[in-house]
Amino acid sequence: MMMKAKSSFKIFIVVSFVATLTLVACALIGNVKGITPSPPRTVSPEPTFVVINLPTVTPFSPPESTPTPQPTNTATLVISQTATSTHTPTPIPTQTPSPTDSPTATTTAPTPTQIPTRGAINHVVIISVDGLRPDALDLANTPTLDALRAAGAYSSRAQAVVPSVTLINHASMLGGMGMEKHGITWNVLDPSLGKINGPTLFTVAHEAGLSTAMVVGKPRFEHLVLPDSVDNYIYAGPTDRQVTDQALQVIQAGLPNILFIHLPDVDAMGHQAGWMSPDQLASVAQTDGMIGEVVSALEAGGYLDKTLIIITADHGGHDTTHGTDSLEDTTIPWLAVGPGVPAGIILESNIVTYDTAATALYALDLPIPEVWDGRPVMGIFN
Ligand SMILES: [Zn+2]
User: 38-65: per-residue pLDDT in tens?
Assistant: First the structure.
């Protein structure tokens, strides 16, 4: 069964390679499927509303980062071995969810000598594409994500928490809780405001003896790093290129049990040129190439058959902003690929961003804190 899973990965790697060539060709003629560029629009700042009913109220900051020139797509997927069969990937039935994995206290941490895993999974890589709307994936050239979707389980209607802004949502994604519990009510870097209320995904994993790393494109993520939780926290710089380069180094040095990667370019282009604009769709295409590099590095390191990859976003957007409770702002993609994950299925359950943390812990066979709102997305553990 593992062979099948591995073979199906080989297949999508091959598909990705072919599609990447297409992508490069498309990049030369304008990046986006049949869409002509529109005139540049005025950059609008991030929303400046305040959060009601909460003790700490902080206005949001001006635009998150100065847009930087987009690097050309240089993604090349490594093919170390050609696929030898064309069978359809089938779900692996060895992983039966057990009800005892539902919320339990963190005191049940396993013994340090044992690396706990669920089935074949002993690494989780979470990639958050800042500001990625799921409908952008249907319009932009995304050969890597298309191949990953074909090899995994996907939802185009997962939900962010409100307000739909970066730090609050990543706090939920990685902290397993809604804003009222995790306490991150702001969207700026301000050390005087303190840290997230734990436990986070990283504190639970770290307590269990697992290794953890974060590579991010916005300095404000510091608020999510509790003591003794993240072994390797890297603010790489404000571009996907910088983040990806650092992430590749982390993977090549030995993939931690949990690796979180935050890619900022799609959001930056949304604020500059508008959500779903040709320029943003071109940015989505380039980000797809970065994700391809990460997957290639995982493949080269021999990690693909023991790694759950989750690709999602913190929020969507409309015009040149986000932050509201509209579906354009709150609907996010949620994709899981890995050993045992059924291939090519659409997840019908209602997924909220805080379920990402719970899914990661469940995949690693770690206890999910009782206080968390998040629950594992069981549809991927069939
Ligand atoms: Zn964001």
Answer: 434 444 444 433 343 333 333 334 334 4
Whether pLDDT at 74 is above 50: no
pLDDT at residue 104 greater than cutoff 60: no
> For residue 159, how far is its CA from the centre of ligand 1 (angstroms)?
14
- Ligand 1 centre distance from Cα of residue 131 (Å): 5
Amino acid at 36: T
Predicted TM-score (pTM) of the model is 0.74
Could you tell me if 153 and 347 are in contact, meaning their C-beta atoms sit under 8 angstroms apart? yes
Distance 170 CA to ligand 1 centre (A): 8
Structure tokens at 273: 């040129």
Q: How far away, in angstroms, is 305 Cα from ligand 1 center? A: 30
Question: What separation in Å is there between the alpha carbon of 99 and the centre of ligand 1?
Answer: 34
Q: Could you tell me the two tokens for 56?
A: 């700490």
Distance CA 355, CA 174 (A): 9
Query: Rounded to the nearest whole angstrom, what is the distance from the C-alpha of residue 284 to the centroid of ligand 1?
Result: 14
Q: Please, what is the average pLDDT of the chain?
A: 79
CATH, residue 310: 3.40.720.10
**Å from CA of 165 to ligand 1 middle:** 5
User: 163: cis peptide before it, omega within 30°?
Assistant: yes
Q: Which residues surround ligand 1, an ion (CB under 5 A)?
A: 130, 166, 267, 314
116 CA from centroid of ligand 1 (Å): 32
Boundary (domain end) residue, out of 91, 115, 139: 115
H or E stretch covering 23: helix 2-28
Per-residue DSSP letter, 175: H
Which range marks the domain in which residue 329 is found?
119-380
Query: Of 115, 131, 161, which residue constitutes the final position of a domain?
Result: 115
Residue 250 alpha carbon to ligand 1 centre in Å: 23
Q: For residue 314, how far is its CA from the centre of ligand 1 (angstroms)?
A: 5
Does residue 209 share a domain with residue 357?
yes
Q: Which residues of 169-182 are buried (b: 16+ CB within 10 A; e: fewer)?
A: bbbbbbbbbbbebb
pLDDT digits (tens, 9 = 90+) for 229-267: 999 999 999 999 999 999 999 999 999 999 999 999 999
Locate 77 and state its tokens.
């997927």
Cα of 183 from ligand 1 centre, angstroms: 17
Q: What is the mean pLDDT of residues 131-145?
A: 98
